[in-house]
Design goal:
This protein is of the alpha+beta class. 48% of the residues lie in helices and 15% in strands.
Length: 143
């Protein structure tokens, strides 16, 4: 549940920033049409809003599976390197050489999960070369 609340908060903050930037841009356009001088404060707030919006968009893109885990730190990496770093169990390999591996989120973040109903396993799918191509969080199988 805390994962969902984190994403709801971030999306709400992003929406507020974009609405604020759009409102400020409309005010600027109206002031320019009326031949009034546009204040530097409006320009600065617009720039800050755009920068914050971009930063939140990048954060949302890189933390899609779990708020405390940067997915980009795993995607494209070799599964054997991840195995050595996190000392996980052997990955499950399919006939074609691809497969998946599972880590507990506590192994990656170092933070104990408080909500037992929350997603607590980080799945990494890899191709036949061992390159991680997909990551996601979900409840452990059988639990």
């Amino acid at each position: 549940m805390e994962t969902a609340m984190t994403y709801i908060f971030v999306y709400a903050l992003l929406a507020v920033i974009f609405i604020s930037v759009i409102t400020l841009l409309v005010v600027m356009v109206l002031n320019i049409k009326k031949q009034k001088k546009v204040g530097t404060t409006i320009k600065q707030v617009t720039i800050v809003g755009i920068v914050l919006g971009c930063m939140l968009t990048i954060w949302i893109s890189s933390h899609k599976s779990y708020p405390l885990i940067n997915d980009w730190a795993f995607l494209g990496k070799n599964i054997s390197n991840i195995e050595q770093k996190y000392k996980m169990i052997d990955p499950v390999t399919r006939d074609d050489g691809s497969g998946y591996a599972v880590l507990k989120t506590e192994q990656i973040t170092g933070i104990k999960m408080y909500d037992s109903g929350d997603y607590s396993c980080y799945y990494m799918e890899f191709d036949k070369n061992g390159k991680i191509i997909k990551v996601y969080c979900r409840r452990p199988e059988g639990g």
